[in-house]
Amino acid sequence: MATHVRTAEGSLDLPAILKDCLMTGLVVFALAAPIIGLRTIDTPGGLGIDYRFDDVAFAVLAGIVGRFLLNLYWAYGGRRRPKAKTEEIAGGRAGAFMKKVGLYGGPAAILFAIAMPMLPFADRYTLDVAILVLTYIMLGWGLNIVVGLAGLLDLGYVAFYAVGAYSYALIAAHFDWSFWVCLPLAGLFAAFFGVILGFPVLRLRGDYLAIVTLGFGEIIRVVLLNWYEFTGGPDGVSGVPRPSLFGLEFARSSSDGPTFHQFFGLEFSSLHRIVFLYYVILALALITNFVTLRLRKLPIGRAWEALREDEIACRSLGINPTNTKLTAFAIGAMFGGFAGSFFATRQGFISPESFTFIESAVILAIVVLGGMGSQIGVVIAAIFLIGGTEVFRDLEQYRMLAFGGAMVLIMIWKPRGLLAHREPTLRLPPSRKPEAAPLAGGAS
Amino acid sequence: MIGLFADPRVATAAAAADAALLSVEHLTMRFGGLVAIDDVSFHAARREITAIIGPNGAGKTTVFNCLTGFYKPTVGRLTLNREGTLFYLERMEDFRIAQEAHVARTFQNIRLFPAMSVLENLVVAQHNALMRASVMTFAGLFGLKRYRDAEKAAVEKARYWLERINLADRADWNAGNLPYGDQRRLEIARAMCTEPVLLCLDEPAAGLNPRESAELNELLRFIRDEHGIGVLLIEHDMSVVMEISDHVIVLDYGRKIADGSPEAVRSDPNVIKAYLGEDEADELPPEIVADLEQKTGGEA
């Protein structure tokens, strides 16, 4: 479409605008004709089709008029269309702003998250949504290690989520071990599967890697679905035990000793268990965050980022690409496994249905939308994507439309993600002596 | 000139081992039917800058790729003598050559980590030393003193090189935002941070203006004299080659056609022929010349 409608300061290029509007009308027509123009209705002989030409006409007209107004806005004083931002110098204005966000925003958000269940609006529904959002934040942070830091595009992350969930559910079903014993085991299993996936894809990058990881995710799901004797197939695993607080169960009464409300002398409330689950996932997510932040400042984290930037340069500097990639896959998968076993214990029932490709896509969308490699970006994107779908629930059938539209707007406005700024992992401290003696020994 | 800060170990090793730092014997590299390097042998010594020159397509970069493990040579032995220990580079994987034999390289098209800061580029180069100090990440994860000290030392070494290449005031910039000449020098500094015994530079002066070229000469002389390592250099810029190299090797169509001091190479007729071409009449075999003369004579 025409991009320059304003020829000189203040003067309008009317034909270009009209052409632009006409193009918009055509696009709207192409979209609206099948979506709005056709409607299936029940007729005595089966399904019939109802045509709604007037609605299509309104849509096209609205598109043309809207585009015209937008053109006028661009032509008179308004801002030009946003352009993709160029690279920023680290430590510039954005850096100062991000430092403030990191300094005050992060701790404030954590305090709010800790206090959330005590606040008056925290009812069962709010807590459930919060637990869901936190699960996805944790998954996003886990995937951020693989995609954001190491730059390995993983479309099958849900496989590790599934491995974690099934590990816990099956170990608990067969050996009757508690959640707190199974949690690290589930993480280890998932990390093991991360290495299994990592080995064959070591040489692959970009699109090819994405396809193989996508296949890996599907393989895990199909195996879970068909290995009926072991996983229960499509029936799933039910009766997954609930977690306890140092042996105190969250139930009205228990045969194994006092329950949570009896021990603390409280009145029984089903909300206790929800609040407990909320704190469990909050702690797990925060551990993920702190470990990731710490790893980023260690040699292994810097090697991941260097690998994302240029693998050949990494090899020339003596960085072992195999180990570096496998640790990224394994650690990312481990956090996916933790989140998976939490998911299993919260639901009490798991089946392959919960681990479809769309889950991988949502987690990847959270990472990309938040800005690859940005921890706070993942939080904002998860709240927006997961919380947003819940908020938009009142819009009923237009929910996904509103949601998709919002995503498109964000990608136009911030093509590199909400918080694309990268803070260096270390800065040069001011030298102590102005004339530093040359480091003879260290630089031989 | 022996530098003040030279490592004594290198000197004793050099005295002990009569072998050169790097010896390349009968190196041949074939890509299918194409022979990119044909039976090339040469030596490179410590405290010397050895330049490899030759017209485009002579196989210079292929020699580098064989030396640094990015290609596996078809035939040949590449021996690196690091403090008396011999490394057969043709048998080693690329990252092991940098990690164990301590051969560092730069690239013709600069390969920095553009989205990382200048300082981070230099610290990533010290990955293996830091990895050992962090005991495979665990000591680092808990912030033990051992790791913190190693990181401080790494930053100080980076500072040393940043001051050497005049980038200390831009240490926190993204490497990708630096001007071209600074990126070239940063890549050399990054290679030096791996503590190499042999530094391979692939066209370091490409795209530099005369002032930057002069700075580069000074930096390379400093590396040779103060750090006592061998420098292997591919270069087209003759002002750089003739001014700083101690030893020049000329390749043409994958073969070595000259080897010696810059003065000797400059006046070598083979080299002049390779660079300037030659008189066509000399090239044609006598029977064809005779044939041609007969034809032109017949028509006339």
Automatic annotation (TrEMBL), chain A:
Residues 17-115 form the High-affinity branched-chain amino acid transport system permease LivHM N-terminal domain. The keyword Cell membrane applies. Keywords: Cell membrane, Membrane, Transmembrane, Transmembrane helix. It comes from the Bacteria. The keyword Transport does not apply. It is found in: Cell membrane. The chain crosses the membrane at residues 21-41, 56-76, 101-119, 125-145, 152-171, 177-201, 208-228, 276-295, 326-345, 357-386, 398-415. Its main location: membrane. Residues 424-444 are annotated as: Disordered. InterPro entries: ABC_transp_permease (IPR001851), LivHM_N (IPR021807), LivM-like (IPR043428). One of its GO terms (cellular component) is plasma membrane. GO terms for molecular function: branched-chain amino acid transmembrane transporter activity. Pfam families: BPD_transp_2, DUF3382. It is a multi-pass membrane protein. This is Branched-chain amino acid ABC transporter permease. It comes from Oceanibaculum pacificum. The lineage of its organism: Bacteria, Pseudomonadati, Pseudomonadota, Alphaproteobacteria, Rhodospirillales.
Automatic annotation (TrEMBL), chain B:
Residues 22-278 form the ABC transporter domain. The keyword Chloroplast does not apply. Keywords: Amino-acid transport, ATP-binding, Nucleotide-binding, Transport. SMART domains: AAA. It holds the Pfam family BCA_ABC_TP_C. GO terms for molecular function: ATP binding; ATP hydrolysis activity; L-isoleucine transmembrane transporter activity; L-phenylalanine transmembrane transporter activity; L-valine transmembrane transporter activity. GO terms for cellular component: plasma membrane. Belongs to the ABC transporter superfamily. This is ABC transporter ATP-binding protein. It comes from Oceanibaculum pacificum. The lineage of its organism: Bacteria, Pseudomonadati, Pseudomonadota, Alphaproteobacteria, Rhodospirillales.
